[in-house]
Design brief:
6-stranded parallel β-sheet, binds ribose-5-phosphate, 295 residues, 8 helices
């Protein structure tokens, strides 16, 4: 029987996975020393079992990544025969390639480290870019949680909603959500300055008067992308604006900025556990974990 190893950043998600799967949850001794270093010990032997380490890596990313590596290492030392590293939010995945000369290829560093410590397989949720998966030599999968978002939204009973991608790149996801909600999909054109990080979104007239608009994206970080989209949408006098994302990072008072830009509600999954995490990825993760163990 596999054993779930709960990481400090994913305790609620691990509990949901334990309830859904019936897998045991190992006891972990986790503490932080006065100088800030993390200590992790698994308090029971794993005796040849498959350890499923669940640890997301939102801010403080570097600490979360270190804890993830400690959890993999400790699982192997406790006797696990295999470790599946489940990292619901994979930090650094936006640095998926070298954009400017001599930049560090951060996502590859993370992939190499997970592998070097001894993970046998890796699962994440809606990785920002599939290129990151190619940096792993072990089996690496990205699970799609947009259907979970769509199914949650469909329970809210919208009439003819517009599902808007704030960026051309996420238009396929917006189309998939729109199909499930019987709505219409559209996208905006966004450009980001690679040096300053400033975001510019092209103005576009959208037919949103008295309609619900759901802006979908994979990540909300500073909120700048959704703020721009919400400002454009607001000009068309919509009924409500909802922002839904997979990974709610909310850096730099993003939630306050979103509300100020006219967003009425923000929804996210529990890849990052926050007050907006109304949608769980436990079910899709479990399906993927089971496939991996059977395959
Ligand atoms: C970018 O390609 C991503 O899909 C998100 O749109 C972006 O990471 C969001 O960042 P922020 O909230 O800082 O605009």
């Amino acid at each position: 029987m596999p054993v779930l190893i709960p990481g400090p950043a994913s305790s609620s998600l691990t509990q949901r996975l334990a309830e859904l799967s019936g897998f045991m949850k190992a006891k972990i001794n986790y503490k932080v020393f006065p100088d800030g270093e993390s200590y992790i010990r698994i308090e029971e032997p794993l005796k040849g079992e498959t350890a499923i380490v669940i640890q997301s890596c939102p801010p403080p990313q570097d600490k979360r990544v270190m804890e993830l590596l400690q959890l993999i290492d400790a699982s192997l030392r406790a006797g696990a025969s295999k470790v599946i590293a489940v990292v619901p939010y994979l930090a650094y995945s936006r640095q998926d390639k070298v954009f400017l000369d001599y930049e560090a290829l951060s996502s590859k560093i993370i992939a190499n480290a997970i592998e070097a410590i001894g993970a046998h397989a890796f699962i994440t949720v809606n990785v920002h870019s599939e290129i990151v998966l190619s940096y792993f030599k072990i089996k690496a999968l990205s699970v799609d949680a947009f259907p979970e978002i769509a199914s949650y939204l469909s329970s809210l009973d919208f009439k003819n909603p517009l599902i808007l991608s704030p960026d051309r790149k996420r238009y396929p996801e917006a189309q998939r959500v729109a199909k499930i909600l019987n709505g219409e999909a559209a996208f905006l054109e966004k450009k980001r300055d690679l040096t300053t990080g400033d975001i510019v979104t092209e103005e576009r007239t959208l037919n949103v008067e008295d309609r619900d608009v759901i802006i979908v994206d994979d990540i909300i970080s500073t909120g700048g992308t959704i703020v721009n989209a919400a400002k454009i949408v607001s000009k068309g006098k919509p009924k409500r604006i909802i922002a839904a994302c997979i990974h709610g990072l909310y850096a730099a008072n993003a939630l306050e900025k979103l509300m100020a830009a006219g967003v009425n509600e923000v929804l996210s999954t529990d890849t990052i556990e926050t007050k907006t995490s109304k949608i769980s990825v436990a079910k899709v993760l479990l399906e993927s974990i089971k496939q991996l163990m059977e395959g």
